[in-house]
Amino acid sequence: MNAAKVRQAIAFFILAVATLMVVVPILLTIFYIVKNGIGAVSWEFITAAPRNGMKEGGIFPVIVGTIVLVIGTMLFSLPLGVLSAIYLVEYAKDNFFTRLVKLSVVNLSGIPSIVYGLFGFTLFVLLLNLGTSILAGSLTLAIMSLPVIITATKEALESVPFSFREISLSLGATRWQTIRYCVLPYAIPGILTGAVLSLSRAAGETAPILFTVAAFYLPRLPRSVFDQVMALPYHLYVISTQVPNMPRKLSFATGFVLITLVFLMNLVSIILRAHYRKKKQW
Amino acid sequence: MPRRISEQIIELCIKLSGLLVIIFVFLIFLFLLKDSLSLFSQYSVGEFLFGEKWLPISEPPKFGIIPLLLGSIYVTAGAIVICVPLGVAAAMFIAEVAPRSAKHILKSLVEILASIPSIVLGFIGIVWLGPFLRNTLGLATGMCGLTGSLLLAFMALPTIISICEDALVSVPRTYKEAAFGLGATHWQTLWRIILPSASSGIIAAVMLGIGRVIGETMVVMMVTGNAPVVPKSLLEPLRTLTATIAGEMGETVSGSEHYFALFAVGMVLFIITFIINFVADICLRRAKK
Description:
In chain A, 74% of the residues lie in helices and 1% in strands. By secondary structure, chain A is mostly helical. In chain A, strands 1-2 form a two-stranded antiparallel ribbon.
């Protein structure tokens, strides 16, 4: 072997080691949570309300709270995100306004989640007088999820061949008819993939819900959109840092339920993507 | 025709949505600005920006942002030093070296890491990493900057790896073929041709990684010890900008000086992340060309 080959072997070995240093901790993290959490997860844990200052019982209202927030987030962010992306891909001309929209999306994606929390608190909780409520929390999470949904939708729309639009328009369809019947149907799987991914992020976020919806201890189900709810990430924060003498087992179990929920949502998005790839015919 | 009308309504909605995105950014900026200005009508801007003491409940209160800013900078620098070399190397491996089948597995693993909620990593920091570092390094407490840096580095890896990998893969094939044709080894091609050609994308990846690290809240709030003092090293407890807002907001009275001070901290964060993302976006666009 000549010197160049030796150098290559050494370099590739270093790259492989670096990759292992990334991959092994990922596996260990998941293994650690699953190993310590799965034993404490029982039917009661998933279906009962917390008791005795959260030290006993289950986390049913917490799970429901998170699911309600995710649904609320979706109701606001999906239509808004998809429509904005349609604007950017199908309608926007290359002008100042369009550049401003694009810059705003970039900027939104970089704003720290805690700043969304501050914003949601001033706008929704105080100014619009929604109080700390499901509505305020969902709206805050929705704005935070927008950039991911917009970017995913944009990519999905852009991947539909331009000729589809040309043919539809040449047959006399209007612009909206073209989008509705010749572009959107082919973009929907891609849009859903992005939407589910962004919602799984929203489900795991803590900072934006701190001041907008999260309840420290509220062991009942929400009755209206103006109720506070407990949520999995915030609950994990509370029981692992704020409650003294909390059994660690319950924190692990809560963490386990949270990552299971998030992984399930990711799995849905992966399946959608695989399905989409298979069906794609151009 | 009713069809025309419904169509016009839909098109109006589409344009309004685009407008709404701008409005949100503008509103976020406006609210932060308004409440920051309320602070600066009572408290000097100079003392806020250059004050070395953050004592919000002493009499008189002090809102010097320096300890928090340094806390954020220390933790971020620590994280970046760890995750940039690792992330770029892993991206190089995934993009160029790994066999096809391994590539898919590695990429899915990185995606899995991206989806782990930060609160779970913070929890692991409390129960495992913090105590582990305290024992191995003989520290006074495991709740320190280093624990935060390590966890944040871990969290930023997916961002860095996936954007770097994209940048490496999108380098034109012909560059590689030309280098091979001239007798270069695969490594020489990767190191001297592909990596430099992908540099804009890699810089963007690093910038976005920094943005992600500096904006992360829960992990640093849980593991860095929450001490709002000017940090001397990463091995001591410190407090970041984000953790200060999250930790103190619940205790403030709406409309008080302290409340406004937290918005001013939010404003500083907003400006920092705005600049970082703006630069990253320029790099990304250059990489696409």
